[in-house]
Amino acid sequence: xxxxxxxxxxxxxxxxxxxxxxxxxxxxxxxxxxxxxxxxxxxxxxxxxxxxxxxxxxxxxxxxxxxxxxxxxxxxxxxxxxxxxxxxxxxxxxxxxxxxxxxxxxxxxxxxxxxxxxxxxxxxxxxxxxxxxxxxxxxxxxxxxxxxxxxxxxxxxxxxxxxxxxxxxxxxxxxxxxxxxxxxxxxxxxxxxxxxxxxxxxxxxxxxxxxxxxxxxxxxxxxxxxxxxxxxxxxxxxxxxxxxxxxxxxxxxxxxxxxxxxxxxxxxxxxxxxxxxxxxxxxxxxxxxxxxxxxxxxxxxxxxxxxxxxxxxxxxxxxxxxxxxxxxxxxxxxxxxxxxxxxxxxxxxxxxx
Length: 353
What we know:
By secondary structure, the protein is of the alpha/beta class.
């Protein structure tokens, strides 16, 4: 099957999803025009590592897979192995993106899987590990996914070095569809303000305070845990080797929706700016009457496509990432999808082990 990597968003998500779906469906794929619309087209280190991880899990083969490659052939193996795996991206490339690539495979593996991934945990243009842990995974559990995530060491741009560990049990039954058609009432808003090697500048405190002020002006209360990661007192098993910061908040509604917002620190980006933006983005998604946030809107698509039955949810707005993922689950998995206004419907294929 030929997959055009320049379609719609033209992002690395096409590469990740296509390779993952290739393994699940035992289809050989020919990826062309990889990330053609990006400033640096072709495979980056994090995309290559995702492909290598899938190859290792299924004992597949690839041709042309190297950094900068714009064309790759991938031939999956027949079996999806469980067990323990350890991957180091080698840069600040997103650990969560790699996790998204291999998580669907773990659901259909021969035995439980443990994935240890080293790289960046918090950066722009990639999901925060807090969002994965506190928003996406709890929703996937409603679909029958048995997975958990541990943060071992924070890691930031530019050097990475952060570590996460994901434990996944394979599915005993088919994934269940998810239906979220009414946002409901916001029950509470929680969050985490984390900074490493920035305690003297009160970065975590300032992010949390600004975020709280913004939310209160719109009638929302929030409880944010303030964490300072230092070599003398690490927050997790290991302290970060560099300075960095991240703020994440999320809310649960009385209809079972989970809606989150997050932002990573960056050189020249103030703690107050992060606090304001994180609050603003959450408020925007809540006021759109959506039942998922702007990140979940496309992150749920592969899982809904693999589930048995029809999933339905309301998105804040249509994006190229959503269009791309809907196109790919139809093309590669055979799922049926439709979008009407802000309502997404996905009729899954009911994949079984």
